[in-house]
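As a warm-up, study this chain.
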Amino acid sequence: QVQLVESGGGLVQAGGSLRLVCAASGRTFSTYTMSWFRQAPGKEREFVAALKGSGGSTSYSEAVKGRFTISRDNAKNMVYLQMSSLKPEDTAVYYCAAGYSANIIYSWGQGTQVTVSS
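Now compare it with the structure written out below.
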């Protein structure tokens, strides 16, 4: 089973940028669809972005489309979430996930906090 560790979270002002990084273990990393989810205080976890193992097909939530970009480096077992034009409503714990798809998740990371100040 793949293990995931996120990093790159922090405090940023509105309009700023952050890049989240997810490091994965395991030799089958390239076969997984990798996703990012987030959970704000008092809210349910929600989908942010996903990228298939082949690196071709991406999907984004409407809330982040045009501002966030998901990418991966299969040689390094890494997946990234570049976040730009950040808004206070982007404040949440961000989780990396590996699975068959964004709806079928095998493993979750521990999460990294992103706080956007106004």
